[in-house]
Amino acid sequence: MKKHQFQQLLEYIVNSEAKQLGDFKATAQIAAELLSQQINVSSVVVSALSAETNTLEQITRLCLGVNTSSASVIRPNPGSCTNFIHQLKDERHISAEFCGDDSRLVELKPYYQALGIISVLEVAIRINGHLEGILSLERTEATEPWHDSEVQLCSQVADQLALTLATQYGYEKDERLTLFLSAAEQSDQIMMVVNLASDCIEYVNKAHADLTKVPRERVLGRQVQSLDFFRQYPTLAALVLKKARIGETSEEEVNLVRHDGSPYWMRFSVKRFISERGNHFALVNAEDCTEQHNHQSELLRLAWRCGLTGLYNRTHFSQVLEKAQKGHLVLIDLREFKRFNDTYGHANGDIMLIEVARRMRHFAEAHQISEVARIGSDEFGILFENEEDEIFIEHATERLYKQLEVPITIGIEQIEPKPALARVDLASIEQQFSLLTCADIALQYAKNKQGNAIQVFNSALLNAFKEDAQIERDLAVAIKGRQFELYYQPLKDLKKQSYIGAEALIRWHHPKKGVLYPGAFIDIAEQTGLINDIGSWVLEAACKQLNLWQRHQIDISMHVNVSARQFFSGTLFEQVWELVTRYRLKPHSLILEITETELMEDIRSATNLCHELAALGVGLAIDDFGTGYSSMRYLKQFPISKLKIDRSFISDLSVSHESREIVSAIIAMASALNISLTAEGVETKEQEHFLAEHSCHQAQGFLYSPALRVSEFGQFLEKSASIH
Ligand code: C2E
Ligand code: CA
Ligand code: CA
């Protein structure tokens, strides 16, 4: 009877949907329910063993009668009943009529006691010999020993539970596998598995074909050596494979070419892993990084190239120069480019620069030079890295100069680029000076040259530069140190034969070098901006002196030289106004001298300032007249009170017919415009004679006196007055 019922029970479990589906929990519940109906027990417990966490999870507990309230008491984890687990693995089941006394079950004693369990049947649920769970039948009342048929039934039920569990695991594994596979297929990242024993590609996902355009069939199952990467980077590929075999990870970025010729960048990593069965595989992860590379190289290009001309920029060129060991550096500057830019507009300025860059590049290509750069707004550099033959370089740079000089057609006009060129032999450089500094020094000289504006750097230039640098440092303290003094050179009225004016000329009592003439420092002061302070001091000192003379009834005018920077500083009018007021000067007795070229630097503001000064009554003289534009048009535009004929014409009077013509023309022009005239640098009686004959108003020069200290000047005036 029992046997038959047991058979039915088993069949019921075997055929249950829960078991077929591999639903362990539901099957365990059914089993517990049925067993509790057939066998005299107080509770049936099914637990599952988790290998990962080494814990015992209670899947179901079915209690009949008394001990339901203690259902929260749980079976001990395998860790605390290792002996029990061990025996169960080997013996499949342990049955004990009195578990409290059973030595096999001592570890479970506290649990049994807590629930008042007296008799147990513990049955192993095993798959392939592994313990996966326990089916436990518990009795709280002692009845009789466990019957063989009961033990057999429970063992069979446990087997069914094991099968259910196996199905569940199988399903889970299958489902996970399909999940992973479809995830891998969805991924934009390339995934590839290579068998390291056979070099065979066991798996590759869809992303690989998307990037490489190589169909999967041509990859899957093939040798890894057939990949483009191995063909295009054989050495690197072999190394990566070698590293994978010994368990070292590789990460690389490579530029590959597809079969259609299109290039792309791929970043990949290769890592070894060992399967459960101990086989070695390489997992390859890869992705397209073409865009990042393009972006990076674009950034590099932007960082290294001039956006307008496409030539290298200063940053790049400086780096190249730093590393350069030998050869020649040529620096090119476009003289008057700024003026051209201001006059013709930036768009035309750009056209000029682009054309100059094109010529430079053309020249460089012809000479197989790669380093051509635009290193400033109108400055270009070219490095003859391998050329050491001096004569060759000399001819080459001359050719370059000639090519750059050729007029450029801009709109309807032909514009001359006016290059200045400096050349430096890298071997001639002193350690403490950079190559560019030396080239710049030579360039300054080149710019001031007449004719071919080419200058080769040499040690004399460097010494002059060092000297200038020293002057610059000394100038900074000269004003505070009261090292300047004004000397006065008399101006003679040729008609009245008396002295009517003085030109204030600055002298510098240099603490080490002695007296310095303006030629030694005015240009440096002008370049560094120190001229503003010096000029202010000169103006103040001259006005103070003029005030003194006026208080002593000495009626002469004071000529003060004004530099361009000072003239356009924006504060000159205010300064002059303040001084004229403070020293109560007769305004017309103060005459500011400025050269024509300087005046033309900014015609509009010059015109405004000249009118303001004229309104104040202060005179304006054009210095060194004849050496600049000497244009009638400008003379009319500015309210000029005086022209000073440059001394070069005067010194040439006796020898040059042309100079005589020019001087007579200037005199005629000045008288037509009603402008007063002074001849500078008069050294001989003949010169004076010529000037007087042509009705030149005034003369100044060594014939009368050089510039004198103020006390000597007073004596000079007294002496000359007494003669007349
Ligand atoms: P400049 O304005 O043409 O001054 C006349 C220069 O010619 C003075 O040279 C003077 O000594 C010199 N000279 C006068 N008569 C003769 C002569 O008969 N023969 C020769 N060979 N030379 C003569 P200096 O004093 O060396 O001044 C040179 C230049 O420095 C001046 O040329 C002027 O442009 C500038 N300078 C002088 N003082 C000042 C100043 O206070 N401020 C500014 N900004 N420039 C000044
Ligand atoms: Ca002057
Ligand atoms: Ca002069």
From TrEMBL:
Residues 468-721 form the EAL domain. PANTHER family: BIOFILM ARCHITECTURE MAINTENANCE PROTEIN MBAA (PTHR44757:SF2), DIGUANYLATE CYCLASE DGCP (PTHR44757). This is Diguanylate cyclase/phosphodiesterase with PAS/PAC and GAF sensor(S). CDD domains: EAL, GGDEF, PAS. InterPro entries: Biofilm_reg_signaling, EAL_dom, EAL_sf, GAF, GAF-like_dom_sf, GGDEF_dom, Nucleotide_cyclase, PAS. It comes from Shewanella halifaxensis (strain HAW-EB4). Residues 250-301 form the PAC domain. Pfam families: EAL, GAF, GGDEF, PAS_9. SUPFAM superfamilies: EAL domain-like, GAF domain-like, Nucleotide cyclase, PYP-like sensor domain (PAS domain).
